[in-house]
Amino acid sequence: MKTLVTEIFEYSARINNARTPSDIAKYSVTELGELMEEIIISEGQSYKEPGKDGVVGEAIDVIACMVDLIRVARPGITEEEILKVARPKLEKWAEKAFRPKLVARREHGPHHDPDVGGTYGGRWVVRDTRNGAVIDIVQYRNDLMDRYEGLIVIDE
Ligand SMILES: [Mg+2]
């Protein structure tokens, strides 16, 4: 079975109208608008009736634009090459999506941190609500941002 990308490539190659990546990107924004409208309708937030293409059809218009843009920007690119670019991105997306959110409570006062083996005296720390560990939010903010999808700090 032919893949969607291959099929879009075939149409894209047949249509020679000197379009540039910029032209395609501009047009794709109008397609994205059409998609958004179908989503709004499908969620019952519009007085309008669904169009004949619906959410799936409009999403395909957006995909077609993007695949066309790739081919026009990089003529001769193969689907295998696209996959090589896509796979690490998909991995990163999944890894990010599955990262937990850290919920921490902000506290003021002396706190012993067994990880560091020291005691924070009279400063703002956050306590991880899952395991009670104390985190020096000022010192570890960047590290925490890397390890968790989000940080929710609850003020005492
Ligand atoms: Mg459309």
- The Cα radius of gyration reads 25 Å
Strands of the widest sheet, in order across it, are: 3-2-1-4
CATH classification class of the largest domain: Mainly Alpha
Which CATH architecture of the largest domain?
Answer: Orthogonal Bundle
CATH topology category name of the largest domain:
Helix Hairpins
**What's the count of strands?**
4
The level of helicity is 40-55%
Structural class: alpha+beta
Architecture overview:
This protein is α+β, with helices and mostly antiparallel strands. It folds into two domains: 4-93, Helix Hairpins, CATH 1.10.287; 102-154, no CATH class. The longest helix has 22 residues, at 21-42. α1 (4-14) packs across α3 (54-73) and α2 (21-42) packs antiparallel against α3. It has five helices and four strands, in the order ααααβββαβ. It has helices at residues 4-14, 21-42, 54-73, 79-98, 137-147; strands at residues 101-113, 118-128, 134-135, 150-155. The protein has a four-stranded mixed beta sheet with strand order 3-2-1-4. The protein is 54% helix and 21% strand. Residues 31, 34, 53, 58, 61 line the site of magnesium ion (MG).
